[in-house]
Amino acid sequence: MSVLIEPTGGPTGGPAEVATTTAQRNRGLGDKVFAGLARGAGLVILVALAGVFVFLLIKGVPGLSVAQVNYGSFSSFWALVWPLLWGTILIAILALILSVPFSVAIALFITHYAPRALAVPVAYVIDLLAAVPSVVYGLWGGTTLALTLRPVIQWLTDHVSWFPLFKGPYAGTGQVGATAVLVLAVMILPIITAISREVFAQTPRLHEEAAIGLGATRWEVVRLAVLPHARSGVIAGIMLGLGRALGETLAVTMVYSSSPLVTLNVAGNSSPQTIASYIANNFAEANTDRRAVLIAAGLVLFAFTFVVNFAARWWIGHAEKRLAR
Known about the structure:
Elements: H1 15-60, H2 77-113, H3 116-130, H4 134-159, H5 177-201, H6 205-213, H7 218-247, H8 250-255, H9 275-282, H10 288-324
Helix pairs in contact: 1-10, 2-3, 2-5, 2-7, 3-5, 4-5, 5-7, 6-7, 7-10, 9-10
């Protein structure tokens, strides 16, 4: 004689199984909501970027064909923009050359050399630098830093004038391109440092321990295990810093004002000017046609910055694929 024993929970399963199914359903709903919010946030960024581009295109294209008289001493729009674009690139690249070594060194010090009691406050101070407004950097650069650099720039123009960057002549104000380079270097330093610090901290601990087990010194561990793993992240931080340097307006405008020139000289009174500072200096007094010219210059800067960031992202993705192999 056989006895049929029916499960306690009935045909749908016990209470534990029901609770598990409900938790899975709630988790799936949460994942869908989060995915929708993340997708929406990404679309908002794309829409805002497209809106800025459309505005610059509509308002700036007429500036490409404004009558010659509205360009001042320049024969055409591009004769005006090329010197400005050159000045923007030169000032930004020089700022990167100064800032990147310090940024990477500080990030390595925080993550691999400094004791925790020192690393935490140093990292906190670096993060605070990123929150300082541009106008504060401009005030500091245009007053204190410019005065401090006067004898230094004077000495460079007197003794190193054979080098194109310090050719001069120098009138002694301190408000020249070299001061703007230093201000931008300080401004982008916390950005590059923060990102580099995060990617250095993400290095697999197993890789570092394996290098130590093979007898590597601390520097060899950094060179062989940390830097190769973090290379793409450091480059991403550098490109973010470059984008900040290319588009910075207020600080550069407050530090110095010069003429659009194609020159390497950043220690003399004829230092090159950036697109952003040129727009800021001329927009308030510009008439309708002149504003169209300035907006067109902004369109050129927007397009150039977009191309630079797109190329950087492509290179980073290509490098990551090579590392994965």
